[in-house]
Write a structure and sequence with these properties.
31% of the residues are buried. This protein is an alpha+beta fold. It has 2 domains: 169 residues, no CATH class; 95 residues, no CATH class. It has a 4-stranded antiparallel beta sheet with strand order 3-2-6-7.
């Protein structure tokens, strides 16, 4: 697999996102949000923004250079496109599917909607620059689209890159879902999760207090099946790879739970 520098990866991520937004608009003709980005692509885009605007209040938050510098180290190729669908998206998809008898209209309407699986950007339509961000792009027809399920309220920020407004998950949310995924899948790829967690954690501490990060992660976890989370945490603590680089945060998370709903006990 060909390797690229951080700068090349980020430049490619922006080029890919530009193509994505032009072909699959995040905002519909009525001004409603269709979807927002999350996962690795959102992290890379966030690392290049000078500020972010909170979607619910309009408050502008300047992003410190130290935050952006630390976060940019996260840059890497992506194997799929993580995004969250909204009510407007679901409505548009329903309307498109109801036109199935009219093949041309059905095809036209669905062509502007990101669909789970291969229903997104085609590799052949991407520029050479935009292809660099995709793992094994030369062997694929299109990038896998992975709509994610969220828990609790959607927290979204707007960033502006190359003159384009992009809707992505709030930084705390990006971190909190990494905590969830770490609990669920750490044993499968411990080195990857340790790297990801450390970069995100160190970066987020330039923007939030540790208490805010613990609270944000806790609010995601408390929406899930308690037995599943308990089981995941028990497996995590038994894994020798679960070491000092990430364990202190989880110790604080478990301690925080003792003062709250005791979900992990």
């Amino acid at each position: 697999m060909e390797s690229f520098s951080i700068d090349e990866l980020i430049e490619s991520a922006i080029a890919f996102t530009n193509h994505l937004i032009n072909n699959y608009p995040q905002v519909n003709e009525d001004g409603e949000l269709n979807y927002y980005l999350c996962g690795s692509l959102a992290v890379m885009l966030l690392s290049q923004a000078d500020s972010m605007r909170l979607n619910n209040t309009g408050e502008e938050v300047v992003l410190p250079e130290c935050f952006k510098t630390k976060l940019s180290i996260f840059a890497r190729q992506i194997g799929d496109l993580d995004y969250v669908r909204t009510e407007a998206y679901n409505k548009a998809l329903t309307e498109a599917n109801e036109c199935w008898r009219d093949k041309e209209k059905y095809k036209s309407l669905r062509s502007r909607i990101l669909l789970k699986g291969g229903g997104g950007p085609k590799i052949a339509d991407l520029s050479d620059l935009a292809k660099k961000i995709i793992i094994n792009a030369d062997k694929l027809c299109g990038i896998m689209c992975d709509p994610l399920t969220t828990f609790g309220d959607d927290k979204i920020v707007i960033i502006n890159l190359v003159g384009i407004d992009l809707f992505i998950a709030e930084p705390k949310q990006l971190f909190s879902y990494k905590v969830l995924h770490l609990i669920e899948s750490f044993n499968n790829k411990p080195e990857k999760f340790k790297r990801d967690f450390k970069i995100l954690y160190d970066s987020m501490l330039e923007l939030y207090s540790e208490e805010e990060l613990v609270d944000s992660a806790y609010n995601i976890l408390k929406s899930l099946n308690k037995e599943k989370i308990r089981g995941g945490l028990n497996k995590l603590c038994q894994n020798p790879e679960f070491n000092s680089s990430i364990k202190p945060f989880f110790d604080k998370l478990i301690s925080y739970d003792k003062s709250k709903e005791r979900l992990f006990q």
